[in-house]
Design goal:
Number of strands: 8
CATH superfamily: Gcn5-related N-acetyltransferase (GNAT)
Low-confidence stretches: none
Bound molecules: coenzyme A
Strand content: 35-45%
Radius of gyration: 16 Å
Order of helices and strands: EEHHHEEEHEHEE
CATH architecture: 3-Layer(aba) Sandwich
Distance between the termini: 32 Å
Length: 180
């Protein structure tokens, strides 16, 4: 049995996903302002998409050695955010950070609080020294979040191809364990 992920921060619980979370995942991603920056598309996100995503999250949890930690951020019994420590590479000691939060809960410091805990945990418990994050240049909230967390901008990419027919200016940020 793999030990479940569970951390309590000042106001939040950061935990593994569980059955029944699909409605909260859907509520977060149905907002165009959230999902446009996550998928870089106008695709309509459905409850079936949320169920499929949850299936992937639950499958990943069963692995002895996880490649990704898909984490639910819970406030008062509701999942208000998703934090992903992804593509964990124990050789390069690196992973990629992704996140998206329910729009209703923006501007309250919840993303900063949850991600700070996840990062602290990853630097202690995983073979990780470098965390990379990418953000759309227009995504001011995301850029501010990364800077608040101590990430440093390494470079910008103009019109990066993100998926077929979709290009965007993006910025790459890095956080290194040695500098935290
Ligand atoms: C990126 C995203 C998670 C950032 O959310 P956010 O609400 O701006 O970030 P936080 O939860 O950390 O809140 C920070 C804000 O709360 C304010 N705040 C209020 N109370 C606070 C508290 N107790 N502690 C800390 N900050 C607090 C901060 O001042 C800050 O506001 P500011 O940006 O106006 O200075 C959110 O915009 C989102 O989900 N976007 C869509 C998905 C997305 O873009 N993902 C990234 C893809 S690259």
């Amino acid at each position: 049995m793999v030990k479940p992920f569970f951390i309590n921060s000042e106001r939040l619980t950061i935990r593994d996903f569980k059955k029944g979370d699909e409605k909260d995942i859907f509520d977060i991603l149905k907002e165009p302002e959230v999902q446009n920056f996550v998928f870089y598309s106008q695709k309509e996100y459905s409850l079936a998409d949320a169920s499929q995503d949850l299936r992937i999250y639950l499958e990943e949890q069963q692995k002895k050695k996880r490649d990704h930690y898909f984490l639910a951020v819970e406030l008062d019994g509701k999942v208000i955010g998703v934090v992903v420590l992804g593509q964990i590479d124990p050789v390069m000691k690196k992973c990629y950070l992704h996140y998206h939060f329910h729009k209703q809960f923006w501007g309250k410091g919840y993303a900063t609080e949850a991600i700070r805990e996840a990062i602290k945990w990853s630097f202690t418990e995983l073979p990780i020294r470098t965390i990379e994050a990418e953000t759309n240049t227009e995504n001011i909230n995301s850029r501010n979040l990364l800077l608040r967390l101590g990430f440093k901008k390494t470079f910008s990419v103009a019109q990066k191809p993100l998926k077929e027919g979709v290009f965007a200016d993006v910025e790459i940020y890095v956080l290194q364990k040695e500098f935290t």
